[in-house]
Amino acid sequence: MLSIAVCDDNIRECCGMAERIRKILERRNVSCLIRQFGSGRELLHAVEDFDIIFLDIIMCELDGMETAQMFRQRSYDKLLVFMSSSRAYVFDAYDVEAFGYLVKPVRDDKLEKVLGRALAKIESKREDFILVSRDRQKRKWFLDDIYYFEIRGREMEVHGREDSFTYYEQMGTLEKQLADKGFFRCHKSYLINLKHVDGYNRQEVVMDNGARIWIAKRRYEEFCAEILRFMRSRGV
């Protein structure tokens, strides 16, 4: 399911944009969850991991550009689409790697075009996946949707965007399988997806979904180097 945020301090325009997006995606048979925010601060405090964020630029208190800069500090690869009644911020949008720029009033064809491009981009990112199975039940998990793996005895639990799944696997085998895929074993019991790291200190990693994962003392320096390499690979 696609997760989308619409942020605009004009409540009527925010609701209208969310409804237009919903209708376009329904025509394309794409299931989605759309949340609306009336300020940049509300958006920044949200715990959801959004695929696409539609962000008004001219807002009170915290404008869209400032919100985008703060958001980029923790989310490297989410698709940001700016909305504004002015074209004056087009070049500023490049500084935060905006995916699109829509001029208000937003035309239907322009909105549909940027959504089509976004869907293609997201689908291309979800090509990598693993197949897991238990009791004859098989599940296909896109790596992009996985927050972390946790081993408990002989059971492996994969924690994803929408739910979790338990199956039998060895952590060492899984670690080798996901080498060079953006995953890091920060503790003997945890293998985390670096793209979903929201923050960290010497004791723990905080994930986008709020989960707090231990960092083994002996892995901390390597983790710092790895997260830095990962961020640079994403152009951050």
The pLDDT mean sits at 90
Write down the overall geometry. Answer: globular
Q: With helices defined by DSSP (H or I, 4 residues minimum), what is the helix count?
A: 7
> Quick one: how many beta strands?
15
- End-to-end span in angstroms? 27 Å
The proportion of strand residues reads 25-35%
Structure description:
The chain is α/β, with parallel strands linked by helices. 33% of the residues lie in helices and 33% in strands. The protein contains seven helices and 15 strands. The strands form four sheets. A five-stranded parallel sheet has the order 2-1-3-4-5. A five-stranded antiparallel sheet has the order 10-9-8-12-11. It has a three-stranded antiparallel sheet with strand order 13-14-15, with no helix packed on it. Helix 1 crosses helix 5. The radius of gyration is 19 Å and the shape is globular. The mean pLDDT is 90.
Descriptive labels:
5-stranded antiparallel sheet, 7 helices, 236 residues, alpha/beta, 5-stranded parallel sheet
Give the gist of this structure.
This protein is an alpha/beta fold and 236 residues long. The chain contains seven helices and 15 strands. A five-stranded parallel beta sheet has the order 2-1-3-4-5. Strands 10-9-8-12-11 form a five-stranded antiparallel beta sheet.
